[in-house]
Write a structure and sequence with these properties.
Elements lengths: L5 E4 L3 H9 L4 E5 L12 E2 L16 E2 L2 E3 L21 E3 L5 H9 L3 E4 L7 E3 L4 E5 L15 E12 L2 E8 L5 E6 L1 E4 L3 H10 L8 E15 L8 E7 H9 L6 H4 L6 E19 L2 E7 L14 E5 L2 E2 H8 L3 E3 L14 H16 L1
Parallel strand pairs: 1-2, 1-13, 2-10, 5-17, 13-20
Antiparallel strand pairs: 3-4, 6-9, 7-9, 8-15, 10-11, 11-12, 14-16, 14-18, 15-16, 16-17, 18-19
């Protein structure tokens, strides 16, 4: 019997989780940022580049232009994706002990929040920090994933087969391959780019995203938590470290722990939505119900992508039932706070179906 081929596209957190749960016949394609520098067909978008002082620099290069008013989008086109700059928070409420043990065996650990060890606390006692064996915030590069360096230019489905047009990093040539199953683990901006290049979205289409209302507030260390909100409280020293991309609570940062100040990251139960309309190779923001003093996307937890009011999971299934996506855009977050737990649960659920 012929072995089924699976391809994962991406190298961030969701791709890492997928690779752990999918069978051994799965291959990974991820790109290095420098691969795209000389590609004349693509444009650089400085306004949505997401970098920190101590993080690996990433450029946003792609197909679409973005006209944003009160929205922030983020594009990190590096192997680790957002996992090299995030806070690594996770709500373990619905993650089974079996899966926690499985992930810990794979060098993914869960540390209880405390001022001493993580520099953070929360009013939700089930929120932990995802770490590696060195007690640093976990990033996908902590797990040695064997991947082919390249970029998925576009894809299409024909006679139940899925065809991928890939630019290979080694020789800079483009080849077309086929696969039985395709798992898209790319970020929000890169997914829209990919769908546009694959002629699956076009002029006139409406794109919608949602996120829980979110804001940062300065507080004293012993202040009461905001009512009716899920709060992650950063000691000011850890907040500064996070801002600059320091991915562990270093001894240097702890020197400032005597300062009685903190920053609360408040996630409220109200959901905000933004809509965009495609006009040629431009994505234009058309509606946004976020408060005037806040910008949609500041939480970096925007999710539940809809295209012409159809959820992205169904949208891809209509193309081919063996095309699935993992990551924030493919989950409809159920409660405010961390979204990594919902990404993991979604990956486990979809991986079981793909492994059949």
């Amino acid at each position: 019997m012929k072995k089924k081929k699976n391809y994962i596209i991406g190298g961030g957190f969701s791709a890492t989780i997928a690779s752990l749960y999918l069978n051994k016949f799965t291959k990974i394609i991820s790109f290095s940022n420098h691969l795209l520098f000389d590609t004349k067909e693509l444009i650089r978008r400085k306004e949505i580049e997401c970098n920190k002082l101590f993080s690996k620099k990433s450029l946003s290069i792609g197909t679409l232009n973005f006209n944003l008013n009160n929205t922030i989008l983020h594009d990190r086109m590096v192997f680790t994706g957002n996992s090299s700059i995030w806070g690594g928070k996770i709500d373990l409420t619905n993650i089974s002990k079996k899966d926690i043990c499985f992930l810990e065996k794979k060098n993914i650990f869960f540390k209880k929040l405390s001022y001493k060890h993580t520099g953070t606390v929360s009013n939700n006692k089930n929120i932990f920090q995802i770490q590696n064996s060195k007690k640093e915030i976990f990033q996908s590069s902590n797990i040695l994933l064997k991947s082919q360096k390249g970029m998925l230019i576009n894809f299409f489905s024909k006679k139940k087969k899925i065809f991928l047009k890939i630019k290979n990093e080694k020789n800079n040539k483009i080849q077309t391959i086929n696969t039985d199953k395709l798992i898209l683990c790319v970020g929000s901006v890169q997914l829209l780019d990919l769908l546009y290049r694959s002629k699956l979205i076009k002029t006139g289409d409406i794109i919608e995203l949602s996120e829980f209302k979110h804001e940062f507030k300065f507080k004293f260390i012993f202040s009461k938590y905001e009512k009716k909100a899920i709060v992650v409280r950063y000691h000011i020293s850890r907040a500064i470290g996070h801002y600059f991309g320091i991915q562990f609570y270093s001894i240097f940062l702890k020197l400032f722990k005597f300062i009685p100040l903190c920053i609360d990251q408040n996630f409220y139960f109200q959901k905000n939505k933004v809509k965009f309309k495609i006009n040629k190779n431009f994505i234009n923001e058309i509606t946004n119900n976020s408060p005037k003093n806040q910008r949609f996307g500041e939480s970096i937890h925007y999710c539940n992508l809809k295209i012409n009011n159809e959820k992205i999971n169904k949208f891809l299934a209509n193309i081919n039932t063996n095309i699935v996506g993992l990551g924030m855009l493919f989950v409809d977050q159920k409660k405010p706070g961390p979204i990594s737990n919902e990404i993991i649960l979604d990956a486990i659920k979809k991986s079981k179906k793909l492994n059949i």
